[in-house]
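Subject: sequence -> structure tokens, single chain

Hey, anyone have a minute? Need the predicted structure for the following. Not urgent.
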Amino acid sequence: MTTERPQLKLVSKDHNLDVWKKTWTIIEEQVVCPQRAAIQPIEFRFRPFRHAIYCPRLGKIHYPWNDLLEIIAGQLKNGLV
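Reply:
Had a minute. Here:
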């Protein structure tokens, strides 16, 4: 039995590493939403981020690990890293 990985979602053209770093923080192997300190370990990178109950971003679907991977892959492809 194989587990199929979801496709990386495309991030908008204006989404770059600086924008990502203003939206998320990485502490050890966890992405943290600075709004209400909800976390997502790297093991859950293919699941939507679960924001804290009082977070203003609650209800929005985010895949921060996938976004970061897409940004870095784009920078590598364009020779920016």
